Amino acid sequence: TGPFTEPLPTCVAADLDAVCIVLHPWQLRAWFGRTPAMLVDAMADVTAVMAALLAALRTCADDDLAGVLWDGLAAGLPAPAQPPGLSLEALRLHGVAAAAAASGCSPRQYQRRFAHAMGLAPARWLRISRWEGAVPGLSRPGAAPTLADLAAATGYADQAHLTRETRAFTQRPPATLRRDLACGAGPWALQALVSDRFKTLNDDRPT
């Protein structure tokens, strides 16, 4: 799958065991021959590309899963592409003009570069990135902040704003999503964001 901007319903005929690998969108071209824009709100079958990795995963014990996964990726796929220099932190904090200046290009050039690397316009990516930042706070009901505090801490105008965005992305209100994530019943695409096994190929937040 590529970047999600809305819920993408899926259906399986039996219980599902899933391994979620969260990649930066700019890795998709080198690893799977698809541009990020091709996979926005879409799914593609990469079984042939991942055949060796899938075979290894089927035979490993649960406690070896992370090691097998990353060893398989390192052995079977090209080296990760270098980040495209989009100054994402400047974008998050100060917007497109600041990110463009930090990247050494005009705002219009920056928007084109961003769409090429990420598959989304900067404004849409910012909206998703902000909400992803709130997801871990929704996954721990016992120790989590209140929704109002979580909204303030993650850049939302108020709790109602966070609630609207959560409904838009998951078709669930935050309280329902929090309960579902706590018992492992939340959307499978979010499990990697809240898993204690979550690893990244570099230090920036994945989307």
Layout of helices and strands:
Blueprint: H1 28-32, H2 51-59, H3 65-76, H4 88-94, H5 96-103, H6 107-118, H7 122-138, H8 147-153, H9 159-170, H10 174-182, H11 188-194
Helix pairs in contact: 2-3, 4-5, 5-6, 8-9
3D structure, described in words:
The protein has about 210 residues and is an all-alpha fold. About 50% of the residues lie in helices and about 0% in strands. The protein has helices at about 30, 50-60, 65-75, 90-95, 95-105, 105-120, 120-140, 145-155, 160-170, 175-180, 190-195. It is globular. The model is unreliable at about 200-205 (pLDDT under 50).
Primary descriptors:
207 residues; mainly alpha; 11 helices; 0% strand; disordered C terminus
Specify the helix fraction band. 40-55%
From the alpha carbons, calculate the radius of gyration and give it in angstroms: 18 Å
Low-confidence stretches: 199-207
Compute the separation of the termini in Å.
Answer: 11 Å
Number of strands: 0
Silhouette: globular
Q: Main β-sheet: number of strands, strand sense, barrel status?
A: none
Secondary-structure content class: mainly alpha
Mean pLDDT, as a whole number? 81
Number of helices: 11
Please identify the oligomeric state.
single chain
Q: What is the H/E order?
A: HHHHHHHHHHH
Brief account:
This protein has helices at residues 28-32, 51-59, 65-76, 88-94, 96-103, 107-118, 122-138, 147-153, 159-170, 174-182, 188-194. The protein has 207 residues and is mainly alpha-helical.
